[in-house]
Amino acid sequence: MDYICRQITYNRKRTYFTIVLSLLYLAVFAQANSTLLHAYRAGDIIHRFRFENFGIGTKGENLIWDYSSLKTYNKDFIVEYTSEKDLDDITVEILDGTRYYYVQDSTTTRRIGYENNNITVEYDRPETVLVFPLSVGNKNIGAFHGSCMYCEKVMAREFGTYSVEVDGKGSLLLPEGKTLNKVYRIHYTKETCRTVYNDIHTPKELIEYINNTHYLSNDSITALITNPESDSRHTEVYKWYTEGFRYPIIEAFVYGKNENNGNNIVAYYFPPNEQKKLYDIENERKRASCKDVEDMPYNKNDEGDLYDNISNKDSLPYTIENEKNSFVIHTSVRNTKTCVDAVLSDISGVVLRRASGYSDSPVIIDCTGLISGEYAIRITIGEKIYERKVHYNDK
């Protein structure tokens, strides 16, 4: 698609993207062994349908978000993903006539710019819009900043603050009568400001001014945004993700702060059956291994039959061994196809490694590159969660 504002020189854009990618290099390759089951993927075309009379619901754990009675408009809104020419590490989302540019690793998805017929925005400090793994409480906050041009005639800077958090877990009741379990909700909040510079007339002058002459630190951005007289624009996005599906099942946009119930909510439904049409081997395997994710309502009374009879009631249904620069987790459960998920973090809670598998085979957390010391492992077997401190010996 030919966009007017894409007449910015390719060399400048390439230089910009290269800078951003270099900042993310370590994060990407440190997680090279992780499977990006929810990453945006070039070549995918997603069909979504707008909900009528949508309500956000609450946050927390063990929730039931009931949207079974909602209706959708017949109109099909298409979202397309592609790659930026000569820059395969950039994923482009095409939505409602706008192209959004992202870089991704196993812990975050970051927006580095966007453009359409009227505007081009390039961030030198990108905004994090998604965080992984899907674990309640996982959160990322920060500031973003970049250049902004209206058809190369009006020069401005765009900046603001963001907060993105996994704030809920539960079951999702869908309009077609199905139930999805192991659903996680991501809540993204953004405050955005733009400053127009009428005395600046070229992209080169703009970049020089915002990066050198009048640089804004993250602290300065936060102070400007939190000023009571700030004219920042408030936006919130809620996304419901579940295991075995690459894209969210529901996505809701809230425009304006929650004052006097004046929110403007626009919500879209990404039907599971539509997502199953994608060629997505990784998530197909995930769905096959986690039969209780879809259609089967969660019932706490079923948990008792999951585990083998263990003579010592204090015994755990797993063992952990430190072998050859890795932790090997063996489980003892009756159902051989139970999902097992293991997360390794440092003692402050920063996630370092993650591995998934089934209960009939070992789950291996690769610790290559980590130093010897104390760590924590969180193991999820079915619906049961266990946490344990471990000592890693770099052999």
What topology does this entry show?
Elements: H1 10-30, E1 45-51, E2 60-66, E3 72-84, E4 87-95, E5 98-104, E6 108-115, E7 119-131, E8 139-150, E9 154-173, E10 179-196, H2 203-213, H3 218-226, E11 233-242, E12 250-255, E13 264-269, H4 272-275, H5 281-289, E14 318-322, E15 326-331, E16 339-345, E17 351-358, E18 363-366, E19 373-381, E20 384-392
Parallel strand pairs: 2-9
Antiparallel strand pairs: 1-3, 1-13, 3-4, 4-5, 5-6, 6-7, 7-8, 8-9, 9-10, 10-11, 11-12, 12-13, 14-15, 15-18, 16-17, 16-19, 19-20
How would you sum up this structure in a few lines?
The chain contains 5 helices and 20 strands. With 395 residues, it is mainly β. The strands form 3 sheets. The protein has a 12-stranded antiparallel beta barrel with strand order 1-3-4-5-6-7-8-9-10-11-12-13. A 4-stranded antiparallel beta sheet has the order 17-16-19-20, with no helix packed on it.
